[in-house]
Amino acid sequence: MVGPNCQFGTIDIRGRDIKYDFPIFPLDTNGKIGDTFNMPKHATTKITDSRGRLTLGEAFANRTVIVEEQGSGEFLVRLARVIPEQEAWLYDNPEALNSVRRGLTQARAGEINRKGPDLKAAAKLAEQLEDS
Description:
alpha+beta
């Protein structure tokens, strides 16, 4: 049974002129053939300008994107966030990142230290750390 979402492709068998039509079924979000009638379809034909530029529309306005060349003239455009180089260390250090997140959670919950920082303990710790 061929559903309304089925398309047909043609394949050339071993360079001969014998051609077979076969159904191409779109996959659902789980990678299985299924009811894809309600799946969003966002294919749009666009034309590049004389400098090779392409507009993506308002959804991408003032956003950072990663453009990945997939080969054969295909590109994947994904929204991205950029982390400044000086802050990347935090995301490379799971212990430090968890500590920052824990502190932010505590601050949102109003769990703050009313006495302020222990400067003597901080100075002692600073003396123990190696310079990098």
